[in-house]
Amino acid sequence: MENKAIICKDLTKQFGDFKAVDAISFEVDQGEIFGFLGANGAGKTTAMRILCGLSYPTSGTASVAGFNVYKQQEQIKKNIGYMSQKFSLYDNLTILENIEFYGGVYGVSRSDIKIRSAELVSTLGLENEAKKLVGALPLGWKQKLAFSVAIFHRPKIVFLDEPTGGVDPITRRQFWDMIYKAAADGITVFVTTHYMDEAEYCSRISVMVDGRVEAIDTPSNLKKQFNVYSMDEVFYELARGAKRSGD
Length: 247
Description:
Keywords: ATP-binding, Nucleotide-binding. InterPro entries: AAA+_ATPase (IPR003593), ABC_transporter-like_ATP-bd (IPR003439), P-loop_NTPase (IPR027417). GO terms for molecular function: ATP binding; ATP hydrolysis activity. With 247 residues, this protein is of the alpha/beta class. It is globular, with a radius of gyration of 18 Å. It contains 8 helices and 10 strands. The protein has a single domain, classed as Rossmann fold, CATH 3.40.50.300. It starts with a strand and ends with a helix. The strands form 2 sheets. Strands 6-7-8-3-9-10 form a 6-stranded mixed beta sheet, with helices on both faces. Strands 2-1-4-5 form a 4-stranded antiparallel beta sheet.
C-alpha cells in the first residue's frame, strides 16, 4: 500500500441520528487528481475535514500520507496542504506578507521562504502587486494565490474544497492548469466540487449522494456505464438510483 496517498474503509461521521458520512470506502493513488463530487450537503466537506485531521470519525478507518486519522492528526497536518472554499488568505496583509506568514506556519525556513516567495510572485505574474493588500485582488487571483500558498511547503497531498466557486469559466480552466502542474510535480490532489463538468479534469472520481459513495471510476468509464454523455447525467442517474433504494 506504499503507493496509496489516502485509504478509507467504512469511514463514518454521525451527528446524533444523522449520518453525514455513511461508511465510505476508497483509495487514492500518489500523484492522482481525485475528484470528490456531490451536491451541496452530500457530505463532502465533512469527509474532507476528517481526512485533514480536523475532525474525528465516528467509526471506520482511514490513513492520509501513511498516518492514522485517529492517532496521528498532527502528522497529517504537516504533510498536507488545504484550501477552503472561503479561502484562507488575510485580506489585510499584502501578497508577500501572506506568503511569508503561511511559509512560517508550514515550517519552511526563512531562506527558503525568501527564495520561494520570489519564485511564486514571478510565476503568478504579480511582481508589481506583491506589496498590495490581498483584499484588493480580484476573486480569480485570490484563488490562484490561495492554491499556491496551500502547496508552498510542497506537501504530499493538497485538499481543495470547492476551489473554483464563483469564478468565470476561463479562470476555472486556468486554475485547473495549476492543479495539473502540481500533480505533475508529484503532489496528490483531492478536490471536492459540485461542478460536474470539472469531473472531466480528474484522473478518477467518486460521487457522493446523501453521505454515501455511490460510484468510483474514471469519468469516461462512468459515462459508458450509464450510457450517457456528461457527468451531469451520471450524477442524475446515481441520485435517482439512490432515491429509489431509499424508498
